């Protein structure tokens, strides 16, 4: 619960950075008190949790969902320092891959803390260096050391642990007690055996290590306890995931590191901090996510123990991070001034604090300065500024940014090896053919097109320097995606100040820069080509790669790759096993029959597996229920055009029936969600629409955010929703969303519709009209568009707007117009006008205002 403390931004002195939702959740559980949130600038896209540990006021910030790597971490850190100017230092706390060796017996659940040496600041960016004339790669540059206050606390804590036990187990147990019910299991030490395989032995195709050769295990003696050991040493960081035992061994031998991860190198020179990592895997092909929650928890517990030995007066006497960075910038500027003028042959890109890059000379003829992973020239140079300038120049590659895409854990992604190979072949650059590579992934909804595209992007097969996911479900959503890209690649405070066409043009210009050829764009869910032409949004460059996912691939230009249901029964059984978490699925004849009946459809298999995980149904009983509902399904739409579509609807119907019996509030909430957009659903949106006349069940769910999260969590567990924890929101698959309206709302529910209307209208602030065109209003506009969905607008029960809502209808129309959703705005204006003429008369000022706004809209459409 939030306390009644009234604090301001200047009261917070410690920044705590996380990369994953589970890390942020663990950090939150370590707080002694949680403070009320504070407003922050629209340009600051971070998600914050405020609180205190002892006397220290702490800002917990997380990377955006889908973003990772050193550049993303630097961007988050800079936004923290901009919004909270009194931050003295930071902690980068979370999970990492262990690097065991003959010298160090690191195990799962242990803790690694970065500690400087004579030649390193504690973190090594192992992919930063230069190619020498003989072709060898030489690492260059040294990242900064942690601030003195943290190093002093580190020494103090190490001394304590020589004579006293660490308090990590104590803090871990206390935090686990706070996470009640199902959530507690996330942070509990797994019962899974800690297995370390020989470095040269690779993992097979199975989702778990159940079929791995046990003779390839490394023999290690028992510790006799389960408490984490704490190691102090070097941490390796880069923009790539290490999933290879031999590569891990190479890093251990060459660098002497204890841990590998992906964010710390982006912070050390831009955010004075210490890095703390809980070990969740061994950086090899056997890695999975079973240990992530516990590893995040022990790392957070160590961070708490460390902060408690930092005296408050020592923090007060430490310069702010901004002052420290400004001083470092002056020193670097003095060094940079001595560099000769850049020439074409020795020009490199130097990343700045905001995640961009600037052209900088590489002086000295020993080789070309490069980033070994991205294969783009970079130099260990960081400029620091807190004044945003509207700079749209090329500022270097930015890594992988997947936005709010619906993605699944890597261990849940099954099969598709052949398809991944086909994608790689289609997009592999041909040095002789100077043209853009384009691939269209076609197939029915729920077949796994999006997950396949994301898996390819994350696999590193294409060695792309910049990867972006774009939402192509509508032209408005696609323009929003371009605005998000602009906010990432350019040093701009608010890209919303520019018109959509200009944003797209400048992003295209960035993608068409000759030095920027290694990018990949994923245009996802382009299922309605009749509405707009997607090729208008392709960059006019003769390089780069584009992937489009579509249910209508025949209408999209590009090399087609049709995604079919799983052909191998083993893949279908693997999904049932990973989702149901049951053993011996591969040998269960009823599981095999069910897998065959579900026709290799990933979404249907995942839904069935998730249901089986939550219920006591046997595979045989589920199959019987499935067969019964296949033929008699009162909730199915009148027409089911495809066998596969009927398969999906039947699995959802089984889950929904269980919800109605086991958790009726969750069932009602799922039905209600048909009246909202499916991309971004957040608590405050639903709370805004509550009134005294709201249904009792809805009031009970919405009044308390804990109840709301519980109900939404149940829907996520049934695979109806996905969590976007870093943004505190939820989303729904397009196919599920279509089903909620077509099947659960055959008869339009006026109460649910008008509640959705009230939620949206109450979330719009009339005084913010000048901001309606900005990106921050885009999610609300998407929900407003749902209010004029074709089937809803044809219903007489909800078409007429009550007089008390007419003003809000006009406001919603204004928002839609400013977001350039002109057709939706026109429909809402017309509904408002019909209501005003009926209730107020044609000559009333409000009626005339709507007529005037309609005229402006028609003029906009004409131009």
Describe this protein's structure.
- With about 850 residues, this protein is of the alpha/beta class.
- It folds into four domains: about 15-165 and about 225-310, Nucleoside phosphorylase domain (Rossmann fold); about 400-560, Rossmann fold, CATH 3.40.50.300; about 570-630; about 650-860, no CATH class.
- About 40% of the residues lie in helices and about 15% in strands.
- The protein contains 30 helices and 24 strands.
- The strands form five sheets. It has a six-stranded parallel β-sheet, with helices on both faces. The protein has a five-stranded mixed barrel with strand order 5-11-10-6-12.
- α1 (about 20-30) crosses α7 (about 290-305) and α18 (about 645-660) crosses α19 (about 665-670).
- The longest helix has 20 residues, at about 645-660.
- The protein is globular.
- The chain starts with 13 loop residues before the first strand and ends with a helix.
- The relative contact order is 0.08.
């Amino acid at each position: 619960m939030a306390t009644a403390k009234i604090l301001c931004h200047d009261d917070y002195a410690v920044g705590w950075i996380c990369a994953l939702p589970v890390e942020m959740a663990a950090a939150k559980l370590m707080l002694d008190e949680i403070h009320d949130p504070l407003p922050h600038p629209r340009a600051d896209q971070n998600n914050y949790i405020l609180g205190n540990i002892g006397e220290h006021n702490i800002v917990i910030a997380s990377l955006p969902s889908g973003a990772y790597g050193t550049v993303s971490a630097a961007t988050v850190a800079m936004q923290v320092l901009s919004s909270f100017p009194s931050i003295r230092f930071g902690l980068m706390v979370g999970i990492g891959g262990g690097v065991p060796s003959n010298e160090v017996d690191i195990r799962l659940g242990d803790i690694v803390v970065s500690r400087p040496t004579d030649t390193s600041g504690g973190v090594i960016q192992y992919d930063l260096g230069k190619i020498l004339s003989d072709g060898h790669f030489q690492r260059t540059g040294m990242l900064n050391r942690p601030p003195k206050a943290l190093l002093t606390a580190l020494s103090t804590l190490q001394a304590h642990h020589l004579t006293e036990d660490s308090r990590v187990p104590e803090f871990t147990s206390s935090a686990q007690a706070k996470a009640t019910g199902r959530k507690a299991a996330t942070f509990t030490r797994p019962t899974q055996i800690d297995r370390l395989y020989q470095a040269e032995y690779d993992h097979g195709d199975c989702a778990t290590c159940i079929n791995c050769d046990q003779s390839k295990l490394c023999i290690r003696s028992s510790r006799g306890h389960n408490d984490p050991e704490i190691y102090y040493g070097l941490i390796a960081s880069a923009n790539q995931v290490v999933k290879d035992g031999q590569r891990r061994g190479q890093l251990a031998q060459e660098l002497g590191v204890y841990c590998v991860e992906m964010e710390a190198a982006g912070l050390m020179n831009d955010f004075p901090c210490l890095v703390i990592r809980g070990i969740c895997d061994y950086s090899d092909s056997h890695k999975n996510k079973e240990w992530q929650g516990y590893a995040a928890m022990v790392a957070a517990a160590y961070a708490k123990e460390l902060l408690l030995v930092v005296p408050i007066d020592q923090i007060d006497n430490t310069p702010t991070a901004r002052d420290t960075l400004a001083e470092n910038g002056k020193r670097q500027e003095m060094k940079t001034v001595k560099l000769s003028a850049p020439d074409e042959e020795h020009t490199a890109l130097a990343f700045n604090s905001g995640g961009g890059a600037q052209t900088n000379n590489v002086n000295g003829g020993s080789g070309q300065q490069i980033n070994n992973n991205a294969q783009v020239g970079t130099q260990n140079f960081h400029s620091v500024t807190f004044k945003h300038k509207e700079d749209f120049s090329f500022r270097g590659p930015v890594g992988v940014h997947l936005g709010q895409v619906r993605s699944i854990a890597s261990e849940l992604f099954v099969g598709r090896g052949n398809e991944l190979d086909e994608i790689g072949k289609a997009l592999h650059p041909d040095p002789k053919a100077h043209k853009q590579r384009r691939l269209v992934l076609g197939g029915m909804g729920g077949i796994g097109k999006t997950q396949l595209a994301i898996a390819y992007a994350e696999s590193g097969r294409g060695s792309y320097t910049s990867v972006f996911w774009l939402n192509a479900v509508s032209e408005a959503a696609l323009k929003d995606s371009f605005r998000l890209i602009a906010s990432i690649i350019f040093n701009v405070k608010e890209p919303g100040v520019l018109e959509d066409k200009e944003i797209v043009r400048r992003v295209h210009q960035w993608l068409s820069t000759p030095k920027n050829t290694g990018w990949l764009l994923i245009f996802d869910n382009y299922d309605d080509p009749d509405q707009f032409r997607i090729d208008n949004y392709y960059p006019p460059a003769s390089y780069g790669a584009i992937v489009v996912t579509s249910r209508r691939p025949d209408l999209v230009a590009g090399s087609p790759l049709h995604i079919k249901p799983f052909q191998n029964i083993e893949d279908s059984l693997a999904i049932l096993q990973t989702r149901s978490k049951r053993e011996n699925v591969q040998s269960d004849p009823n599981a095999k029959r069910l897998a065959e009946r579900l026709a290799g459809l990933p979404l249907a298999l995942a839904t069935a597996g998730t249901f089986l995980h939550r219920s006591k149904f046997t595979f045989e009983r589920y199959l019987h229920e499935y067969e019964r509902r296949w033929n008699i399904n009162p909730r199915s739409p009148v027409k089911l055009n495809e066998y596969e579509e009927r398969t999906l609807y039947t699995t959802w119907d089984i889950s929904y029936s269980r919800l109605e019996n086991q958790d009726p509030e969750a069932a009602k909430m799922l039905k209600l969600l048909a009246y909202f957009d499916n991309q971004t659903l957040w608590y405050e949106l639903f709370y805004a629409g509550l009134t005294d006349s709201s249904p009792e069940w809805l009031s009970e769910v919405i009044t308390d955010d804990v109840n709301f999260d519980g109900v939404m969590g149940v829907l996520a567990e049934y695979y109806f929703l996905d969590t976007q924890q870093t943004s505190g929101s939820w989303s729904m698959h397009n196919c599920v969303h279509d089903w909620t309206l077509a099947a659960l709302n055959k008869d339009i529910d006026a109460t649910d519709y008008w509640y959705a209307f009230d939620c949206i209208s109450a979330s719009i602030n009339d005084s913010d009209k000048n901001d309606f065109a900005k990106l921050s209003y885009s999610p609300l506009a998407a929900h407003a568009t749902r209010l004029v969905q074709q089937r809803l607008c044809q219903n007489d029960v909800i078409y007429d707007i009550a007089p008390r809502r007419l003003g809000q209808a006009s406001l919603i129309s204004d928002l839609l117009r400013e977001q350039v959703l002109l057709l939706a705005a026109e429909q809402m204006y017309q509904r408002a006008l019909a209501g005003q003429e009926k209730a107020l008369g044609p000559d009333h000022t409000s009626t005339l205002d709507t007529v005037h706004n309609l005229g402006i809209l028609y003029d906009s459409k004409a131009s």
